[in-house]
Design a protein that fits this description.
The chain has about 160 residues and is α/β, with parallel strands linked by helices. It is built from 5 helices and 7 strands.
Length: about 160
């Protein structure tokens, strides 16, 4: 009985951690200059929404793979995507991290106005991929990024 209860509890927790956003508008974010922005899927593009933090070991492990995969794409392939990094950390902490770790210029960096937990993000890194306002892919706890993954996403 205790094992069944434990399995059920872990299943519920796992589902909660993986619950995709129902509406991008609920993620209120600002630029690193504190200007409000509206998150939405760009028309005709694939939106990669990546939740991360500078203190997150798995996030830091994932970033070089993401950079390498991005660098392997042709400009015409890159044009099919909008990549947004979202953190709930203070702007100064994000900025300090980005000064040390230069990410591709195409990757937009925004700060959430609420904590991850307040918007239902229970684990990081977490990535949602949208096309035509629908989630087409989701990863929890990191993505094994390759150029082929980007290409596959653009074909969906």
């Amino acid at each position: 009985m205790n094992k069944l209860l434990l399995i059920l509890t872990l299943s519920i927790i796992g589902l909660t951690a993986c619950t995709p956003p129902s509406n991008l508008a609920k993620y209120q974010a600002v630029t690193l200059n504190n200007e409000p922005i509206s998150l939405q899927t760009p028309k005709g593009k694939v939106l990669v929404l990546h939740f991360w933090a500078s203190w997150c070991r798995d996030c830091l492990i994932e970033i070089p793979d993401l950079e390498t995969a991005w660098a392997q794409l042709e400009e015409t392939e890159k044009a099919k995507f909008e990549v947004i990094f979202l953190s709930d950390e203070e702007t100064e902490r994000i900025t300090t991290f980005l000064e040390k770790k230069k990410l591709p210029a195409e990757f937009k960096q925004y700060r959430l106005t609420k904590s991850f937990k307040n918007i239902g993000v229970w684990s990081i890194p977490q990535t949602y991929v949208f096309k035509d306002d629908k989630i087409i892919r989701q990863w929890d706890r990191g993505v094994p990024w390759t150029a082929e993954i980007f290409r596959e996403l653009s074909r969906q």
